[in-house]
Design a protein that fits this description.
disordered C terminus; disordered N terminus; 5-stranded mixed β-sheet; 160 residues; 23% helix
Length: 160
């Protein structure tokens, strides 16, 4: 994460950007290429049991609107209601690794995520999360003091 001496209204230092772990290596790639990388990341996460093995998904890079958006549909046929919610947030966190956003300009991330969860074939989504990214702890310039976690720079919308 990039840092400077910026402060919030309460004079708490914060980073000028939230930068995902894979963003620096992919920052010049088009959104379609990022979608392919996200697909591979989710396949690997499913193979390593980070995501449920029964999870299916599709990913679309949508640049037709006012903001670039990765649209991700998750298909999970598991009777445990916590499984779908857990998968939703795990995918959001994994995809955040490719993103970048300034907390002072949350309306302008590299891309937005729209993740819909389907728990039955040919159904409507049971949950949808729309947002930019999940950030990490910010550090002051001496890198010894951990500041409180940043509040999300975007409204996460859950429906369902």
């Amino acid at each position: 994460m990039s840092q400077d001496d910026s402060t919030t209204e309460n004079d708490v230092p914060f980073t000028t950007e939230l930068v995902g772990a894979w963003y620096p290596a992919t920052s010049e790639e088009p959104l379609d290429a990022v979608a392919v990388r996200v697909h591979r990341t989710l396949l690997t996460a499913r193979q390593n049991d980070v995501l449920p093995r029964s999870l299916g998904f599709d990913i679309t890079a949508d640049q037709t609107g006012t903001h670039p958006t990765l649209k991700i549909n998750l298909y999970i046929l598991d009777e445990d209601p916590d499984c779908a919610r857990s998968a939703l947030f795990s995918v959001f966190e994994l995809v955040s690794g490719y993103n970048q956003v300034a907390p002072t300009s949350p309306e302008a991330p590299r891309f937005f995520q729209q993740i819909a969860v389907f728990e039955a074939p040919d159904s409507t989504p049971s949950m949808t999360l729309v947002g930019a990214m999940l950030g990490q702890h910010a550090y002051d310039t001496d890198f010894d003091t951990i500041l409180p976690p940043l509040k999300p720079p975007f409204p996460a919308v859950l429906a369902g």
